[in-house]
Amino acid sequence: MKINIKFILLIVITSFLGSCKNQEKDEKEETIETPKTKDVSDNLNISLLLDLSDRISPTKYPNLTMEFYLRDVGYINSVSDAFTEHIRTKKVVRANDKIQLFFDPAPFNPEINKISKDLKIEINKNNISKELINKTKTIYATDPLKIYDLAIKDQHYIGSDTWKFFKDKVNDYCIEDNYRNILVILTDGYIYFENSKIKEANLTTYLTPELIRVNKLNSSDWSQKLTNQQLGFIKANNDLSNLEILVLGINPNPKNPYEEDVIKAYWTNWFESMKVKRYEIRNADLPSNINKVIKDFILKSK
């Protein structure tokens, strides 16, 4: 039987080229730093909302253990670590993740706004690299501290318009289709902004220590009063079922032993009324203690 050498050679070459093509495809689907057995396909859209009110003032609210603004910086660093850790577990072709930082209202200092613009980062299959991931970690480890330093130096603590952010901006700024949308709020739990101060019956757009005292929520029957008087925040949004929220930094007035419970009840009832998909509300603590809370919330979706 006569053997067709050219035919056999053609088969060998075709098989070799097909193998190379498959290998190239596999390499493109490899993750940045982890084995390809780890397949995380969800896309993260993480937003941070900073409260730059006087709560961050080391003069008005000093803390010998660790200043509150430095705790914020530590929390932000942990969020960034979780974000980049998530990206490293994804296949390159599936990279499509975002992280950004907001204030409301915007600070007067234009330098602060410029820094926040630099902190808006998107990592996708077209630009992903170890260099960009490392740059994201670096910029989130250094630039937030610059923001707090500038805000403290300016001494323009104009308050926190968190309620209006939920009413007018959260849908456009923090929620996108085909993403796990996560909003991390850094706040002491109190909300106040003069231009958005509204009261409807016993519902308000603000929460202050004074309001808690006026409503006499400083005794063991605080929960009953909250229910009977229908106290709480005015609903600011009808449907946040595609948003997960992590609130960090709750810092109740120590003079009222029930203040923490009242603050958390206000936020909990508010989130429930707006149909928030998932949320956690945590007290101010050292960043080393909160680090696991942050990473579990971001990396272990439910």
UniProtKB/TrEMBL annotation:
Protein name: VWA domain-containing protein
Biological classification of the source: Bacteria, Pseudomonadati, Bacteroidota, Flavobacteriia, Flavobacteriales
PROSITE patterns per record: PROKAR_LIPOPROTEIN
